[in-house]
Write a structure and sequence with these properties.
Blueprint lengths: L8 H5 L3 H4 L23 H17 L3 H10 L4 E6 L5 H12 L3 E5 L13 H11 L2 E6 L4 H10 L7 E6 L5 H15 L9 E5 L6 H10 L6 E5 L8 H9 L4 E4 L2 H7 L2 E4 L25 H6 L5 E3 L20 H19 L3 H5 L4
Parallel strand pairs: 1-2, 1-3, 3-4, 5-6, 5-8, 6-7, 8-9
Helix pairs in contact: 3-13, 5-13, 8-9, 8-13
Bound molecules: N-carbamoyl-L-aspartate.
Length: about 350
């Protein structure tokens, strides 16, 4: 249970994100999150703990005995996956993470199959899920809905944690966790993530993964961020304001090739045209210079990596797929491990897993 009961909604919602953090963490005081709503909840120490736990789960799962041990850890819990926006990887990796820990799951992927279709509010639907489940993993096109639900649930008779699996254009904290886990693993034996240069390219205006990851990178020392996007899709001011306030080195460019030459990681994103105000709006933007292909591959250093939250369209040419620096497939699988670490931590099982004999 979290401290969200100690504060009214109006007072809480007016707080800056970083001040909201204490209200969302576990009351047990082990520093793990109860509700996971935005990237600002995670500091470096917590990120390192989650990466270590993900590594541990990954290792334990290699043997049958270990996998069976993990399957028993949360066998007494049930989770609801409530996804009212399209998803493949985020849905499946959360599902697989639950299965790994023995959690029984239920899902709604289309509001038309739930009572929302009969006019029930999202609030009432989520309250319904909490009657039957112990965790809600939710994705919604509505900015801030997961947060409102977390507050409602914490103040209800049956408080259960909420895990934000993508909210509107604003946040995608668990994607940022898997991105950080991928970066940390990629540079683990090459001097670490500190001091690196990360290039973001594509639709930086509407990509929620960029906002969450850009923030988490500020938890590391001296990571430079370069943003490359068409004029119309430039990184939003709120992201830049955070970098400025924290004294982070950043650059805004419109030339991908020059940025790739300096990159340790290139984070490509697709054009998020589902947010177009009018049909075909994005199609009018010239995105031809914001794609990663054979030429860019030649410019990337030998230890550089290419990332993408996926799904991709044509922003990474398939000729890059078999290059050892193409990290997007491993990145996708990393999602399952870090999400299982987060869920285990949410329920207070970090130590049990870290210290088990496997
Ligand atoms: C991202 C999302 O949904 O925000 N995908 C994901 O979660 N793997 C990015 C995208 O859809 O482009």
């Amino acid at each position: 249970m979290a401290k969200l009961t100690e504060i009214g909604w109006d007072e809480y919602s007016a707080l800056p994100l970083e001040s909201k953090k204490p209200y969302l963490m576990r009351l047990e005081g082990d520093g793990m999150p109860y509700h996971t709503l935005f990237a600002q909840q995670f500091d470096r120490a917590l990120l390192e703990r989650l990466c270590a736990l993900a590594n541990r789960i990954r290792f334990i799962n290699k043997s049958k005995e270990g996998a069976l041990y993990l399957k028993n850890v949360l066998a007494h819990k049930r989770a609801m996956l409530y996804f009212s926006q399209p998803s493949s990887r985020t849905f499946l990796s959360h599902l697989a993470a639950c299965q790994l820990l023995g959690i029984t799951t239920g899902s709604v992927r289309d509001a038309a199959t739930s009572s929302e279709f009969k006019g029930e509010s999202r609030e009432d639907s989520i309250r319904t899920f909490s009657s039957y489940f112990d965790l809600i993993i939710m994705r919604s096109p509505e900015q801030g809905l997961a947060e409102k639900m977390a507050w409602e649930l914490s103040n209800s008779d049956r408080p259960i944690p909420i895990l934000n699996a993508g909210s509107g254009k604003d946040q995608h904290p668990t994607q940022a966790l898997l991105d950080i886990y991928t970066l940390v693993r990629s540079f683990e034996e090459k001097g670490g993530l500190d001091g690196r240069t990360v290039v973001f390219c594509g639709d930086l205006l509407r990509g929620r993964t960029v906002r969450s990851l850009s923030y988490l990178l500020t938890d590391f020392d001296d990571v430079r961020q370069i943003f490359v996007a068409p004029e119309e899709l430039r990184v939003p001011d709120d992201v830049i304001a955070i970098l400025k306030a924290k004294g982070i080195r950043y650059e805004i460019r419109d030339d991908l090739r020059s940025a790739v030459r300096e990159a340790d990681a290139v984070y490509m994103t697709r054009i998020q045209d589902e947010w177009d105000a009018s049909a075909g709006e994005s199609a009018k933007i010239d995105t031809s210079r914001f794609k990663f292909g054979a030429e860019e591959l030649k410019l990337l250093g030998k230890d550089g990596i290419i990332m993408h939250p996926l799904p991709r369209r044509d922003e990474i040419a398939t000729c890059c797929d078999r290059d050892p620096r193409a990290m997007y497939w491993r990145q996708m699988r990393n999602g399952m491990w870090i999400r299982s670490a987060l869920i285990a931590g949410t329920f207070g099982y970090e130590r049990a897993i870290m210290d088990c004999g496997y």
